[in-house]
Amino acid sequence: MTMTTEPTTSRAAGRAVDAGRLFAAGVHADLDAHRRAYGDLPVRNPDAMLAELEASGLTGRGGAAFPVHRKLAAARQAAGGRRGRAPILIANGTEGEPLSSKDAVLLRNAPHLVIDGLLSAARTIAARNVLIVAEGDSLRAVERAIAERPDARGIEVVEGAEGFVSGEASALVNLIGNDDPRPVDHTARLTTAGLRGRPTVVQNVETLAHLALVARRGATWFRSVGDPVDPGTRLVTVSGDVPREGVFEVRTDATIREVLAALRPDFGAIAAALVGGYHGAWVPERSFDLPLTALDLAPFDATPGAGIIRVLGADHCALSATARIVRYLAEQSTGQCGPCVFGLPTMADRFSAIASGHAPIENAADLTRLAGLVVGRGSCHHPDGTARLVRSALAVFAEDVRSHARGRCVRRSR
Ligand code: SF4
């Protein structure tokens, strides 16, 4: 997709679009603009900060939606106050997912909010090493921001690696520790034994920006918007068949339709949206009134993931679009695990055969069975995410699958 460099702000969409939190300092905010908008970062007692985070309900915005306070508390407990076990904190600003640009937009426009969150989280767990991993212009924006403030001089900046799975937490740790950007199968959790065997916390940069706001304004303020179970706001990257693409900050209870309304699309010309990215799931247009939460999207096995909505026009072949993604995902395997080496290329071949109309209807059932076989058997979740996408496409576009098996596509393919 075309890289969006600034957040898309639009009041026209009503309550769904709320760009007032993460980008209150404006675009490309320097330290002065940041301080004018947010004031100084308060120094909070670690126990009080953990309690505030727990009360806020803040979850990770990198895809897994893990409660932030639990990850921090686990690392602090594993360290046990011993100097040799002092935790390592890593801010993850890499975006291997081709449909996401929200972390790049955040780092380029609000790097000081991310740094605030990193410093606050580091203080909370008494981290001895603090790093930010980013790429390209985002990395340079972070370096400029660090140079502006003495309190950030101890932060180490690391250049991320290319590749879909290189942003996975264990891959980041492997990159930093061994210059190898492949995920590692961890028998122990990273929060117990990560980089250099020390308790390690990897947090997405957007998560840290929200954490900085909780540190300043508290849990009650944070929960004042959004879904009661998963409160606050989130960044969403919207792309595909819409009048323009963009990165929005939206309330977590905004529906898919409310988010897209900011772009004024012709909903009648939309077939579906891929929600959550390449490891996500398809949601048909008739269900766009569902809020963008894991609970509400559960019937489709979808989650917001890293905040991604990819819109598919009604005149584009959903099966061909999915086949291209499955092929890409098969090629993104790091070649370490059986399900990726043997399962994903076969799944890509079979999906391509279905999409091109060269496969009998039985192929769909066979593909569903194959997708079930790879789940939970890789070192990382790459096979699981690929299987989710395949099963989702076969279910949501079942009528298309039947038409293709009869040798004809109900839509015009690109
Ligand atoms: S599951 Fe696939 S992508 Fe993940 S580590 Fe194994 S081979 Fe690499």
Question: Which descriptors apply to this entry?
Answer:
414 residues; binds iron/sulfur cluster; four-stranded parallel beta sheet; alpha/beta; five-stranded mixed beta sheet; de novo design (two linked rop proteins); single chain; Rossmann fold
What's the SSE blueprint?
Blueprint: H1 31-38, H2 46-56, H3 68-79, E1 88-92, H4 102-109, H5 111-125, E2 129-134, H6 136-148, E3 156-159, H7 169-178, E4 200-204, H8 205-222, E5 233-240, E6 246-251, H9 256-261, E7 270-275, E8 281-284, H10 294-297, E9 308-313, H11 318-331, H12 338-355, H13 362-374, H14 382-396, H15 398-405
Parallel strand pairs: 1-2, 1-4, 2-3, 5-9
Antiparallel strand pairs: 5-6, 7-8, 7-9
Helix pairs in contact: 2-3, 2-8, 4-6, 5-8, 11-12, 11-14, 12-13, 12-14, 13-14
This protein binds iron/sulfur cluster.
Task: Quickly give the CATH architecture of the largest domain.
Answer: 3-Layer(aba) Sandwich
Q: What's the number of domains?
A: 3
Q: In what order do the strands lie side by side in the largest sheet? A: 6-5-9-7-8
Arithmetic mean of pLDDT: 92
Description:
This protein is α/β, with parallel strands linked by helices and 414 residues long. It folds into three domains: 11-222, Rossmann fold, CATH 3.40.50.11540; 233-313, Ubiquitin-like (UB roll); 318-405, de novo design (two linked rop proteins) (Up-down Bundle), CATH 1.20.1440.230. 42% of the residues lie in helices and 12% in strands. It has helices at 31-38, 46-56, 68-79, 102-109, 111-125, 136-148, 169-178, 205-222, 256-261, 294-297, 318-331, 338-355, 362-374, 382-396, 398-405, and strands at residues 88-92, 129-134, 156-159, 200-204, 233-240, 246-251, 270-275, 281-284, 308-313. A five-stranded mixed sheet has the order 6-5-9-7-8. Strand 2 (129-134), helix 6 and strand 3 form a beta-alpha-beta unit. The site of iron/sulfur cluster has 14 residues, from helix 14.
